[in-house]
Every structure is written in C-alpha cells, then in structure tokens.
Amino acid sequence: MTGLSFDVSHLLAGALVLVSFMLLYQTRLFALLNVFALQAVVLALSVAWQAFVQDAIHLYVTAAIAFAFKAVIIPVALHRIISRLGIHRDVENVVGIGPTMLAGLALVALSIVVMLRVVNEADALAREDLAFALSVVLLGMLMMVVRRNAVSMVIGFMSLENGLILAAAGAKGMPLVVEISVAFSVLVAFTVIGVFLFRISERFETVDARALDQFQGDRL
Amino acid sequence: MTNIAVDLVFQFLQMTVVIGLAPLLTGLVRVVKARLQRRRGPPLLQPYRDLARLARKEAVVADSASWLFRMAPYLVFAATWVAAALIPTFATGLLFSWSADLIAIVALLGSARFFLALAGLDVGTSFGGLGASREAMFASLAEPAMIVIVFSLALIAGSTQLSTVAAAMTAGVGLRVTLGMALIALVIVAVAENGRIPVDNPATHLELTMVHEAMILEYSGRHLAVIELASMLKLVLYVSLIICVFAPWGIAIADAGIGDRLAGAALYVAKLGVAGVLLGVFETSIAKMRVFRVPDFLGAALMLGLLGALLLFVSRTLK
To answer: Taking the model in full, what pTM does it have?
Structure first.
C-alpha cells in the first residue's frame, strides 16, 4: 500500500464521516436531502477509488449503483414526497444540536477504538475503512434516534446503509451478487417506507413520530 | 552580531507592515462589499482618516468609569499587537517568533478579549453588560475550538512553533483530510472572533444583536481610535495566521537573503488582498444569524477540530 493511495482513501472515508456530521447538523429538510445526495457522491467516489486500488472491476459497478440510487433516485423521490405531502420543512430534534454533535463524536471515538483493536491482523486500509464504516453506521442510528420527523429518520436509515457499503468495499472479496441484492433491498425498503410515510401523514396529518406514541397498545 | 541586527530590523519591519496594513485591509473589505451591493462606498483609505479624526478628538469618559476603563484600550491593543508580531507573515524565524508559540498567541488574544469585556462591564450600562456576556458566551466555544485546531496542526507539523509549522507546510505534508477540517474550523473561529457577518455585523452599531460594538459603545476619542485599530489588527492577525499555516508558499524561510524576504513581503501583501476580497464576497453572500444560533455555528468548528484530531489519530496509528 503506497502512501498516496492510503491518503486518498483516508481522505474520502474521512469526508464520508464528515458528511454524516453535516446530516446531523442540518435542520431543514431540503438541505438535508442535498447533504444526503452529497454523501452518496462521496461514497461512490470512495468505492470507485477502492476499485482502482484493489483492481477490482465489480466495485465500479457498486459505485455506479450507489451513485444512481442514492445520489439521484432516492433524493429526487423524497423531494417529491415532501412537496406532495406539504410536510413542515423544519426538522425538530429531540435533543439540541450541540449534545447531538458531542454524542456523535463519542460514537466515532468508540468505533475507532473498538475497530482498531478488533481487526488487528488485517491491512491498514481495511482496518481504517471498517472503523470509519462503523462510525457512519452509528451516526446513522444516532440520527434515527434524535429526529422526530419520519423523513429524516428515513435519511438516517439510508446513511446507515452507506456505511455498510463502505465496509463492504473495504473488505476484499465481497461478491457482486451480495452488493446488488443489498442495493435492491434498500430500494424495496425505501418503497415500503414511502408507503408508510403516505399512510402516516394521511392518518395523523403529520409525519412527527410522536403522534404514534399514543397508539402503542398496552403500556406497562 | 550583524545577523541579530538584521533580524531585529526585519522584526520591526514586520510589526510596522502589520499595523500599517490593518486599516487598509478593513477598507478593502468595505470597498468590496460596497461594490457588490452596487454602492459607491467609502474610499479605500477611509479607515486611516477615521482613525486620525478620532485621535484628534477629545476623549469623553463616563463619570462612573474607573481606571480600568481608561487602561483597557491600551492593554487590548498591546496584547493584539504582540500576538500579531509573533506570526511569521512574510518570513519565518524572525527574532520574536522563537519566544512564543501558537498557544501563547491564543492566550494573548484571550487576555485582550478579557480586558475588553471588563471594560464593557465597567461603566455599568446595560448595553455594555449585554455585549460582554455575549462575547464571553462566544469565546467559551471559540477558544476550545482554536486550541483543538492548534493540537491537530502541532501533531502534523511536530511543533506548536509557528515558524516550524510554516516551514513544515512549505515542505509538504501530504494529503490530509485533517488539514481541510482545520482550515474550515479556523475560518469559522476567525469569522466569529472578528465579529464578521454571520456572527456579528461590523458595519452598524444600531442593532440589538450587536456584540463587539455594544462593548465599546461608551468609548470616544483616542480610546476609540486605539480599540478600532486593535480590532483591525486582529483581522489582519487571523488572516495572516490562516495564510501562514495553509498557504505559506513564497514565505522566506529562516536565514533567507534580504531579496527573498522582500519578495515574501510583496507576496504576503498580495495574499492579504485576495483574502480581503474573499471575505467581502463571503460577507455579501450570507445573512446574519440569530444570536442563539451562533453557539451551534461555533460548535460545528469545535466538532470539526475534534473530528480532525480523531482522524489524524487513526492515520497515525495505522501508518
């Protein structure tokens, strides 16, 4: 592994984590969608760089799939859903931005510490990619926890999946079939979530997830 | 012996250049903003005239003011000027730069801010207290961010000494995502510290959201002139800091000849001009934020700094 290729993949993976933080920072829905598209572009670049470094043709396909689905189709579709539902465009956070950022930083530190210890044997690039991928996954989960708006929860879920793709690209020998099926299952999940969004907003006239709380059935 | 004399001459030249250019940079930013807003705007040299006019005028001091109020402008100015003298603007290894590092610069700026906030509180008007409390609120976030940035830079360059950092950056340190994050964080801190547009509006003192202007509302005459000059100097200081760390090309390395140093000085002035135009464009293209959004903005700088340090840690352990 030469210095430059390591530096470039470090740059791209670090940028991916940074974009995850931008998602957490963003409080407007359309800006959130744009940042999500940006994350997909960075992910596609990162995977394409891995393909170049590892000399693996099938990773180019993965990059192309990530770009087409995540950077174009899903943001445009979400954009149209938001316009059609007339959703209130400010996102409400359960906790403030400052504590969220700090929690995110703690998660990144945690995943770095854990991953660097666990995969001691693997080569530097894979270890680093796994550490950053785990950070992106955890940040996506954090986003689903701290947001009240169903649309931004969807975006948190999708960015979590971006982390999975990054991990898959870093680990050598991930078959193309698996990646394609993951991509399609995300698209299916997106469709299901879209239907749910329509249902929720039809019934409760809001996509605020708090409205669901009163229908939890028997509470202890 | 002659070497030390030459170094001393260049050190004083640097201090004069910095203070001489400070009003010019502020004037340039104002001209750029005026032109972008299709106004004619004040002439480029207007800040010099303003300072001269203020210096001639009588200084009126409130009855309730103590000695601190009269001392504060000079303390603020002195701390800022010393901090500016420590930054290698056009040549590294100037005589003073070995006596203090980046952390000392942060501390000097911190004490300048402390005295300004005390002076704002001293007279006992509500505006002064408001400005001082807001300044303290911003500083409590901006300073940690600055320190974290300093740590990342020190880890990359191997020293907190600015001359060494500039030399290391000129020599090349490879592609580092941390540097990009540190640059953005440093720009955010600089914008907040100088009270430029998204945080504070430098062009008016008629707003309820003002911070810097609220603290110096009671000053007049030569006191006001000294404070204004100190804040112009602070702008030059931050711009020079960013230039010297992130764009040090053409800077004269220690022991360079006199010709190299003069060429470095010319290039430095050109870089300042570019930075002034960029700042004017940035300020015109963005709206001012609400005061209570500023902590989020500065928190982003802190977060960027910490994230950069973490990423640096990863690449360090792996290599």
So the answer is: 0.84
User: Degrees (nearest 5) of the Cα angle A108, A112, A113?
Assistant: 115
Tell me if chain A has a CB within 8 Å of the CB of B309. no
Contact predicate A34/A79, CB 8 Å? no
Specify if A220 maps to a domain.
no
Q: How many CB pairs under 8 A join A and B?
A: 64
Tell me the shortest Cα–Cα distance from A8 to chain B, in angstroms: 7
- Which pLDDT value is given to residue A119? 67
Domain spans, chain B: 2-318
- Burial level of A188, CB count in 10 A (0-12/13-18/19+)? exposed
Cβ pair B318:A108 closer than 8 A = no
ipTM higher than threshold 0.90: no
Chain B CB contacts of A3 under 8 Å are 174
Residue A216 counted as domain residue: no
- Distance to chain A for B303, nearest Cα, Å: 7
Domain, as residue range, for A65: 3-206
In a domain, A62, yes or no: yes
- Identity of residue A40: A
Tell me what the mean pLDDT of segment A11-34 comes to. Answer: 86
Interface probe, candidates A101, A116, A142, chain B, greatest B C-beta count within 10 A: A101
Provide the chain B residues 126-185 that lie in CB contact (below 8 A) with chain A.
174-178, 181
Residue A212 lies in a domain: no
Residue A72 DSSP class: I
Give the Cα separation of A9 and A53 in Å (integer): 9
The number of C-alpha atoms within 13 Å of A1 and in the hemisphere containing its C-beta is: 17
Tokens of B300: 């982003």
pLDDT more than 90, % of chain B: 42
* Closest residue to B310, CB basis, from A7, A112, A124: A112
Give how many domains chain A has, as a whole number: 1
